[in-house]
Amino acid sequence: MIAVLLAQTIAITGGTVYPVSGPKVDHATVLMRDGRIAAVGANVPVPHDALRIDATGKWVTPGLIDGAGQMGLTEIGAVPGTNDAAVRNDTVAASFNVAEGINPASTLIPITRIEGVTTTLAAPETGLIRGQAVLIDLDGATLEAMLVKSPVAVVAELSERTKDAGGGSRAGAAERLRRVFDDALEYGRRKTDWARAQIHPLAASGADLAALGPVLRGELPLIVIANRRSDIETALRIGREYHLKLILAGAAEGWLSASAIARANVPVLVRPLDNVPSYDALGVRYENAALLARAGVKVALLETDTHNSRNLRQQAGNAVANGMTWDQALRAVTLSPAEIFGVADRYGSIALGKVADVVVWSGDPFEFATAVEHVYIRGREIPLKSRQTELLERYRKLPPY
Amino acid sequence: MRAATAYLLAGWAAACASSGAHAAPAAAPAAAATPAPRGATGTAAESLSVNRPQYPSTYQRHPYPPVVITNATIMTAAGQEIPHASILFREGQIVAVGATVQAPSDAIKVDGTGKWVTPGIIDVHSHLGVYAAPATDAESDGNELTGPVTAEVWAEHSFWPQDPQIPLAIAGGVTTIQALPGSGNLIGGRSAVLKLIPTRTVQAMKFPGAHYGLKMACGENPKRVYGRRNQFPSTRMGNVAGYRGAFIQAEEYRRKWDAWNRDHKGDPPDRNLRLETLAEVLRGNIYVQNHCYRADEMAQMLDLAREFGFKIRAFHHAVESYKIGDLLAQAGTASAVWADWYGFKEEAMDGIQQNAALLQQAGARITLHSDDPGGIQRLNQETAKAMYAGQRAGIPVTRDQALRWITANPAWVLGLDSVVGTLEPGKMADVVLWSGDPFSVYSKAVQVYNDGWLVYDRNDPAHQPRSDFELGQEPPPGSDR
């Protein structure tokens, strides 16, 4: 037993460490024991029995966190049997928690983590109120082994896609959302009456109304997907009316409302590489993330396409190319999402006691030339293998027939 | 997919994935792919529609002073990366590239210190203009899904030159595109090979002398589109029977027209637009551009091409090309691929990041394509990803080879390799000045010259084209470009 515990002590030595929670430290050591960060700094003694990983000349960062997508909930986009992120025919699905739809054996998980993304959101799709998102580490044979937090938030959407839930008008959708919230409050106050059917018909099922309780008490965040400025403003308005702990997602025209978003202290989840105009977001532009950050908004950067989640670092690099500082961008894929999702006490930084999700890079993590050299999730070294590396090895030399 | 509005939505619906020889730069516009050879003599031939101009290019070089870019790192895509070098171009032609060039006194001097220069980027798989933004049903013009063989349709007749995606792609350093019909049909129609410049008409964008492409599609899309309607084809074997049936008709059509063009005996054969295009494929004048994902299906398509005596110029998407690099090299068929897309549909399951590098190793021709209005804006980045993924796996790929994936090689796919795609004297002056190494995530196109004309300058709003659509929109779309 003791031998096993000792084997779990790993020392990454000599690298430039970006703890994110503090300034970078050159020639530093990161000590990981039992899945946690045991020490970090320039003068950390390395236990004689620790496994030493020489990171001289390398960059060491927290594992990247992608605050979007359907990791574990989708295998092949166009094959419905492999997709578990949406409940059909239910525009108000607040009680739908995606967790048990997650497939820990998904091939996307190794493909993604070997590129330095160690933690992702798994979020529900479709609907005015889509359901509950959870946060997972990209390692583990069971759901329990992967879960970081469940639920992280209830996800709603105010856009051209959901206005049909309000009869075809954005105003209708906003009003419907309010009716559901009002009835959830009513349900909370008069549960007994509801059980005895001594209450007027409510705007959603009992389970969905109950699931909104923590949201309306301000305990659980509500992620609202909104892109057009008017929809963003509607979300902020509803957030004020119900005293919600709001998170904006998408927010393509967020830069136009940056100061209002900052004043409301609402964090924003942004995919930097969006600039193709739609009628839902004519003002979409690459500088969105930078302009929001400059206004004082807490920003997390995303790669929303689950299969491409490994390109989160390309997204972050492009955010820098379009005005974010490098430090802001690193924070926006590590500590900021951890804070937004309420797990910063465990995730998003390399600091004493934090979960040991750590990546060793050959250089700047955002650059294409940079390789991932080591990935640790909960202190376990992840083999840099996936279905795709196996295909590569099979076809590196072509078979004779 | 429109990622801005599709937050948290799986992105399998990407563009085509879900649906479905220029002699010299100054040469007069000429349709290389004239439907049938002109009658040698006789008024009878001249009275036929087939012998009149078929939607000719009206492209004209935009006059612009000579330009010399000095002290830049110049990547020629012809074997060299020259530090502290200069490039001179005038009247749409590259005049000189080297450590020192003799610049005329009237040349505009551009300081390239710390910057890089490459040829203009060419994307052989784009749906700009045919699937314009904003993506509405009204602007969805890429898939003629009323029958599995629609060789008679031409992408240029759908193309909207005011698509606001065009200026965005220009700002990404793209100078030439092939706008293709979608992949919902077995045979989807003719492509349009276009100079990416702001114009009022598509005719003014048509690359003089370019070979038309014929869009064909393998696999899931056609059989899904028609199978769901309980129509032919609903299987992959149905797909192949569909191509064969169409080309058998085309053989007969070609024979009749070739005979009539030879001796003008009797009435000319009936004109059939669909077969006219297919006959041009059989004559080798129109290049087959074949959407095809799986290696085994590509091998079937090579057999089809051998059966009818044509060449497949390029397989597009081709996520499994790396499994048959030898067959592709032998056939002389290029692969137009993404850097790393995979998994959005069953036939894309086996996509790997080393596809391009493994093909390079096998001696096959590669081009990186976008099939996406976002991806087209950063083909340099996608190339960097694919190059470094190969190098990290121990597959030798040089920077020059990688640059050719988005310049010289796509020029070959369009039959334009003697005209564009490298920075060599005599080539058309399609030139991009980058803020830094084009293979860095932090670099951006600073200036884009198309045929010697400054079509984009990141630092000068007077050279930042805007489509009509963008005017008066509050806020202005893509205002960062």
- CATH level 1 name of the largest domain in chain A: Alpha Beta
CATH superfamily of chain B: Metal-dependent hydrolases
SSE class of chain B: alpha/beta
CATH topology of chain B: TIM Barrel
SS-based class of chain A: alpha/beta
| Net shape of chain A | globular
The SSE order of chain A reads HEEEEEEHEEHEHHHHEHEHEHEHHHEEEH
For the record, give the distance between the C-alpha atoms at the N and C termini of chain B, rounded to a whole number.
20 Å
Could you give a short description of this structure?
Chain A has helices spanning 2-7, 108-113, 143-146, 170-189, 191-195, 206-211, 213-216, 229-241, 258-263, 288-294, 312-321, 326-331, 335-340, 387-395, and strands spanning 10-17, 25-33, 36-41, 51-54, 59-62, 64-66, 117-122, 129-137, 147-157, 222-226, 246-250, 268-270, 299-301, 358-361, 372-377, 380-381. By secondary structure, chain A is of the alpha/beta class.
Give an overview of the whole structure.
The complex is a heterodimer of chains A (401) and B (481). Chain A has helices at 2-7, 108-113, 143-146, 170-189, 191-195, 206-211, 213-216, 229-241, 258-263, 288-294, 312-321, 326-331, 335-340, 387-395, and strands at 10-17, 25-33, 36-41, 51-54, 59-62, 64-66, 117-122, 129-137, 147-157, 222-226, 246-250, 268-270, 299-301, 358-361, 372-377, 380-381. By secondary structure, chain A is an alpha/beta fold. Chain A folds into 2 domains: 1-62 and 348-384, Urease, subunit C, domain 1, CATH 2.30.40.10; 64-346, TIM Barrel (Alpha-Beta Barrel), CATH 3.20.20. In chain A, 57% of the residues are buried. Chain B is globular and about 60 Å long. Chain B has helices at residues 15-18, 43-46, 165-171, 220-227, 236-263, 273-282, 295-308, 325-331, 355-362, 379-392, 399-404, 408-413, and strands at 67-75, 81-90, 93-98, 108-111, 116-119, 121-126, 174-179, 187-190, 192-195, 213-217, 287-292, 312-317, 334-337, 366-368, 431-434, 445-450, 453-457. In chain B, helix 5 packs parallel to helix 7 (295-308). Chain B starts with 14 loop residues before the first helix and ends in a 24-residue tail after the last strand. Chains A and B meet through helix 11 and helix 14 of A and helix 10 of B.
